[in-house]
Amino acid sequence: MWGRLLEASAISDEVFASAKQEGLDLLEAMHAATVAAFDSLPDPEVTRGRLRLIADQPELLAQASMRVGKDSNRVLRHFSDGGLGEQTAPYLALAFGTVTFAAWIRWAQSADPSPEPYLDKAIKVLRMP
Fold first, then answer.
1. Nearest-CA neighbor of 129 among 5, 26, 4, 21?
2. How big, in percent rounded to 5, are the helix, strand and coil portions of the chain?
3. I need a labelling partner for 75 at 20 to 30 A (CA). Which of 19, 26, 55, 69 fits?
4. What is the 3-state secondary structure (H, E, C) of the chain?
């Protein structure tokens, strides 16, 4: 349903680890991992079409938050392993998933070839505690 976007998480995890080794902070590393996930997609237009379908169907859009919530556990693990406390990491993980999903939807509804500018804007609304 997601056009292989969520299946790209293995690549995301590798890029996240590499970005952390290069000294990027947690949000920058997650951003790099998200962009890498897009870059790994075999056909971004399939992803765009599926995201448009999700955005246009209230039932699918409502279920999307459940799927983003599942992926949030992976993000939460990265934030927790990166030193964020248990009182902070869950909020930042959920916020990251929410703004990232909004960026993907905005990109899908555009004619732009890459979601990177949308993801760049999304990450800028977050801050590390």
1. 26
2. 75, 0, 25
3. 55
4. CCCCCHHHHHHHHHHHHHHHHCCCCHHHHHHHHHHHHHHCCCCHHHHHHHHHHHHHCHHHHHHHHHHHHHHHHHHHHHHHHCCCCCCCHHHHHHHHHHHHHHHHHHHHCCCCCCCHHHHHHHHHCCCCC
Cα 47 to Cα 52: distance, rounded to the nearest angstrom: 8
Using the CB atoms, write b or e for 38-52: b if 16+ within 10 Å: bebbeebeebbebbe
Instruction: Copy the structure tokens of residue 108.
Output: 């899908």
Count of residues in the chain:
129
| Amino acid (1-letter code) at residue 51 | L
Q: Which phi and psi angles does 61 have, rounded to 5°?
A: -65, -40
What is the end-to-end Cα distance of the chain in Å, rounded?
A: 34
Provide the residue-wise pLDDT of the chain in tens; the chain has 129 residues: 444 555 566 667 788 888 888 998 989 998 998 898 888 888 889 889 989 999 999 888 888 766 666 667 888 888 898 899 989 999 998 899 889 989 999 999 999 999 999 999 999 999 888
